[in-house]
Amino acid sequence: MQLVGDNLELYAMPPQEREKRKRELNLLETLERLRITTETQLPPQQFLFRMLDKPCFPRGELVTVTGKAKSGKTFFLSLLMGMGCLQHAASRKSPALGIERIPDAPLKVLWFDTEQSRHSTLEILKDRIVRMVSDFPSELFDVFNTRSMRWNEREQLLLTAIAHSRPDLVILDGICDLVADINDGTIVKPVVEQLMATAQEYDCCIVCAIHQNKAADDRNPRGWMGTELNNKSFEIYSCELLKPQMIFSVEQTNSRRYRWDGNYYFLVDEQGMPHQADVPATTAGAADGKPQKESYPPMNAKYASWQDGHVKVDIRNLFCDVLKNGARYYSDLQATAMQLLGCKDTGFWNHLFNQAKKEGVITDGYNSDNRRIWKLQQKVTAQDLPFTKDESSDAPPF
After folding, report:
1. pLDDT tens, residue by residue, 292-345
2. Which of 242, 291, 298 is nearest to 268 (CA)?
3. 3-class DSSP state for residue 244?
4. Nearest to 395, CA basis, from 282, 312, 303
5. DSSP character for 249?
6. Tens of pLDDT along 108-129?
7. Residue 286 domain-assigned (yes or no)
8. Are residues 137 and 229 in the same domain?
9. Same domain, 275 and 155
10. What does DSSP say about strands 169-173 and 109-113: parallel, antiparallel, or unpaired?
11. Do residues 55 and 201 lie in contact, with contact meaning Cβ atoms separated by under 8 Å?
């Protein structure tokens, strides 16, 4: 009877007042749906991964991954995608990577790549992610490369893909390509708000990759888009490539729930496969009182020394000792060199190996079995053996 009375009262009003009252009633109904009280019942918040013993990457939320160019953002996202689609519950935790997928069942993954070429996206999928997962479930993995599309088409394509695929994990690499101007708040804010609503509606975690500002000491994500993501993201992660170790560092710079106690480190071996790395040692503070970046743990002083805050490795001396008895296969060359140097980081070894090739210290060839071997260049003679600062090869500065 009350409803009938309300309707009679409503239709007794003048048309303009009646429309105003209808809008008000609709808003009141919406507010009731949105009301939170102490009696509100909600399911527990679910997280997709556990890293450094903390749950992370929650369903229904935005997560931001930032970093300079070539800082490991896409590689880090590849680790998440690979761990997410592991099929067997028993293998959902990787000791080599230090990442655990929390749900027993494999995740449905959607990778929406806006930045890289189709060849690069395919290469990462086939040569990195698939190689991480021996029983790769292609039916659970949707990959779209949208670099050829216009910015004003990509957002609707992404929303359509999410609605159709119903993924658990969405990798948006990168979010800035959904707008014409990352500094225009009038177009940036609606995009971020739409992604928040979509993550909640489809109960998925949307991970947004965005570059940091170009200045070396500015780690803020770029533009108004970066500011919005800083404000709206549940978690924010910052990627960095540490030199000279060639170790990737992932720092959790913000979280609304579980905070990491330290950083996550990983390196990439000669075959392009990732492995979790130990926490690098730190050097003493600089003269100005500012902490320096992580340094590689102490190595054999015969080949390595610290000069002006940089680690310097005498590459000629090292490789002459390694190859003094003749040519070696690559695996033997690597193992012997790392043992002599006292280096446990294959990422740093890769740098030294490439530097030795670049400087003409070593060259490759083939033995009688047509197998590839590595040997000293003829120009490297016994007179090159003594260690001198002038001949020392510099690893990249901090």
Report:
1. 444 455 678 888 876 555 667 899 999 999 998 889 988 888 888 888 888 766
2. 242
3. coil
4. 312
5. E
6. 999 999 989 999 999 999 988 9
7. no
8. yes
9. yes
10. parallel
11. no
